[in-house]
Every structure is written in C-alpha cells, then in structure tokens.
Amino acid sequence: MATLGTTTVTLLDLKRRLDKDDKVAGLIELMESTNEILEDMLWLECNQGTGHKTTVRTGLPTATWRLLNYGVPKSKSTTAQIMDTCGMLEAYAEVDKSLVDINNNAPAWRLSEDLAFIEAMNQQFAATLFYGNTATDPEKFVGFSPRYLTPSATTTDSGYNIINGGVATGQTDATSIFLVVWGANTVHGIYPQGTKAGLEVSDLGEQTLTDVDGGMYQGYRSHYKWDCGLTVRDWRYVVRIAGIDVANLCAKSSAADLCDLMIKAIGRVPNMHMGKAAFYMNGAVKTMLEIQERDDVSSGGGLNYCNVSGHPVLSFRGIPVRRCDGISLTTTGGEPDVNGETFGTP
C-alpha cells in the first residue's frame, strides 16, 4: 500500500491515491453525497496499528525581552501524549438475486441498492464523531462532545472553547454548533495502518437469504467495513457553541443570535489558516440561521454562498456551513445543560 506519511487528505483524495483497483471508489462517492462532513474532514494513517499516538500541546513556552549583558531564562512548551483508537463500523447488505439478474448483475447497480445501508453507516459515523464515548461505548471512538463537555474560564483549558448558547437550566431541547479547523497539526480523522482509509467492500456472492417470515430465497450479500477514529491534536481548533435553545429558535428577536455566537466561535480560534475550517449544525438550526440572516445572503453580509467542488454551499464569513443531523436536538442525546456554568469571555 502507498504510504502518505504525515499528509492529511480527504477520503476522496485517498480514493485517488490508494484505490488503484477502484473497489471502494463508488462507496466513497455515495458516502460523500449523504455526509457533508466527509467533504471537509482530513485523514491520517495511524502510527500504532489501529491506534494513533500523538503529542498534544497543553501550553506555550515563554519569550523574553533581553537587555544587553543579560541572559534569557530557559523555557519550553508543555505537552502530553495521548492515544486515540479506531472503532469498527460494519454493515451487511442483501439484495434479491432475481433483481440483480434483471439488471445484469452490474456492481454499480448493486452498490446503489445498498445505499440505505451506506446511509445507516454515515449516520452512525456522524453521531459517533460528535458524541462517541469509549467510557460508555468501548467499541466506538471518542468524539468531540466528551472532549468539550465542561465549560471553563481558563484560557489554557479546552473548556474555554465552549460558548454558552443560552439555554435555560434543566431544559431538554438544546443543541450545539461545532466549528472545526481540520489539519495535520489541529484535528483529523485516523484510519488503521495498512488499510485503504479503513474502508473495505467485500462481495460475498450468492447466498441463501431468509425473509422476516423465515422464508428462504437466493440473493447476494455485500459486507461494508469502516475502521475510523478521531484525533484532536490542538484543542484550540475546535469550538463548541453549546446549549442553543431549540424551541426558541423562532425569530432573531427572541432566540439565540446564531451569527453573533458564530463570530465568537471564530474569535476563539488562534489562526483560521491552520487548516480547513467548517461549521457543523443540525438541519433545523441551519434553516433558522438562514432565516435569521436571509438579508445577508443578498446584501453581502456575514452569510453567503461559496462554490465548493462545483456546487453552492452556504458559508459564514467564508467558512462553509454544513448540515449534520447527527448533532442532537436534545440534552439526552449528548448535549450538556450548560446554563449557570462558568464561561470565558468572548
């Protein structure tokens, strides 16, 4: 297998570089068509088999103005080593042999018939990317929410990058917006060593299948496997706007001002040029964002449309705004009750 070293690339790039026999090309294209995250997310091969050990910077060194004949005190940055692991996501797709035969057993047609299974994998991946927690679900990988769960006013704490969306204490219909700057030194996905982005597609051929009533019929079975994980190398390049009141997202005068919150999120990131940035939010929140700022789209305000891969994408101050329904609309789905917590200043 070709080695990409420390280069982070999208799944589409990996398909072009690694998949010379084009086995997973159609799968990746279908995944990207139903999962906007994959258009932004960058990937790096694990350096420890199915795990990735990385050095995370936890503090910066000090610099000193020096006088003539006076020295400079020693200083160094503070770091910590962490190990992120991959989870194994799998699905089996089955289709009636008669249907396949009618369509000349075309692999592309079978892949299109498997779209429901691919979509289920996409949804599972998205939910895990934001809420995965190996403490409660050891078979998954650690997502963003467990890493950004407790707000803090300390600028050297990852909780500083949690912004209060204003939900009332104890309210259960709350959601988050995430700003992520993808990059080799910031945040990226990981996949096991020696694999093609962790993706495998196996045609298991003709099988005797069973329907819901126990009846048997001949069909074809496919196996889809995706081993993947997440590394946050520099916590400063992820910002979570937590506790957005979903029920109150009805008008700008009575709801959270989404654009103001997103401006604050941008302000928490040290350098927006360190990688590929994008906002992620539930479809309901994205719709309300467009309603709140519909005038900006035509007047050249903060909200606009940009061309990404040949099609228009909503953007805020040049940053793509992506829809991800894997982001929960309830606190029971993994959203914290943040009201009353201590937050850093904008």
Describe, in plain words, how this protein is organized in 3D.
The protein has one domain. Helices cover 23% and strands 31% of the residues. Strand 8 and strand 9 form a beta hairpin. Helix 1 packs antiparallel against helix 2. It has a seven-stranded mixed sheet. It has 346 residues and is of the alpha+beta class.
Name some characteristics of this structure.
346 residues; alpha+beta; seven-stranded mixed sheet; five-stranded mixed sheet; 9 helices; 23% helix
Layout of strands and helices, then pairs:
Layout: H1 11-18, H2 25-34, E1 43-45, E2 51-59, E3 78-85, E4 87-96, H3 97-102, H4 107-113, H5 115-131, H6 144-147, E5 162-164, E6 174-182, E7 187-191, E8 199-210, E9 216-232, E10 238-245, H7 258-268, E11 276-281, H8 283-292, H9 294-299, E12 303-308, E13 311-316, E14 319-323
Parallel strand pairs: 1-7, 5-10, 11-14
Antiparallel strand pairs: 2-3, 4-9, 6-10, 6-11, 7-9, 8-9, 12-13, 13-14
Helix pairs in contact: 1-2, 2-5
